[in-house]
Amino acid sequence: MAHERRSQRGSGPAPGRVAGAVRTPPGPAVARTPRRGQGRGAAARASGRGARIVTCSSCGTENREGARFCRACGAALA
Description:
Layout: E1 44-47, E2 51-55, E3 62-64
Antiparallel strand pairs: 1-2, 2-3
């Protein structure tokens, strides 16, 4: 019984997928009030009530201030 083979081909997850994995859509960006000393240069811009976001120069995705890498493409943020 220890050496049983699976008789059903293709019964597992498709190649590159993990069984039980759930893909969730990205949620809305959350803008937060910047903490003291967190300014990150020209890439940061003001929006709303003093909250700041950083726009990725590679893909244009808006990221929270203080993020070191883009949440969409992984590029380093200035």
